[in-house]
Amino acid sequence: MKTLSELNGRGKYVIIKVLGDHKLVRRLAEMGMIAGKSITIITPASGPTGLTIFFQGQRLAISDDIAERIVVRNMSDEETADLHSLSDLAISDSGIVTKMTGGKELRKRLMDMGLTKGTMIKVNNVAPLGDPVEIIVRGYKLSLRKADASNVLVEKVGEG
């Protein structure tokens, strides 16, 4: 994981967290720059024109100060990611689906429910005995058995 200012090449990246004071984090969140969103670097910060990104259908120029506060991960770096089982996440933890294990039928069923690679999820609630786990995926709530959730590997995002 690196900040946007540390990157020296073009490519697709996922925002892991946004650092800084509350006002700046809130302002960037209003623009949509939150953990789990993807950005594409068009011009790296080392160039004379500064950092230019493609984000949510628009080209944006980012100052060096703000670029130092946005921590990202390359989309192709999944093997170096710190993976956790979905069933191990606490309430209000967020993550990006990185890999699914289990049988072919289970993987197909999970993908049919919207759990595909690169999808942002958030644990919304956990039953008192730990089973099922309620998550928010693609804007809707989904309950999964703990055994099924343990087959979904995610990378945590948005940690302090």
Describe this protein's structure:
- With 160 residues, the protein is α+β, with helices and mostly antiparallel strands.
- The protein folds into two domains: 2-74, Ferrous iron transport protein A (FeoA) (SH3 type barrels), CATH 2.30.30.90; 81-157, SH3 type barrels, CATH 2.30.30.
- Helices cover 17% and strands 40% of the residues.
- Strand 3 and strand 4 form a beta hairpin.
- This is Ferrous iron transport protein A.
Which architecture of the largest domain per CATH?
A: Roll
Q: Might you state the CATH topology name of the largest domain?
A: SH3 type barrels
* Secondary structural class: alpha+beta
Question: Strand tally, please?
Answer: 12
Q: Give the rounded overall mean pLDDT.
A: 84
Uncertain ranges: none
Which CATH class of the largest domain applies here?
Mainly Beta
Strand coverage percent:
35-45%
Q: Tell the overall outline.
A: elongated
Question: Percent range for helical residues?
Answer: 10-25%
Rounded radius of gyration (Å) = 17 Å
Specify the CATH homologous superfamily of the largest domain: Ferrous iron transport protein A (FeoA)
Q: Which strand order does the major sheet show? A: 1-6-2-3-4-5
Layout of helices and strands, plus pairs?
Blueprint: E1 2-3, E2 11-18, H1 22-31, E3 38-43, E4 51-55, E5 58-62, H2 64-67, E6 70-74, E7 83-85, E8 94-100, H3 104-112, E9 120-126, E10 133-137, E11 140-144, H4 146-149, E12 152-157
Task: Put the structure in a nutshell.
By secondary structure, the protein is α+β, with helices and mostly antiparallel strands. It is built from four helices and twelve strands; from the N terminus they run ββαβββαβββαβββαβ. The protein has a six-stranded antiparallel beta sheet. A six-stranded antiparallel beta sheet has the order 7-12-8-9-10-11.
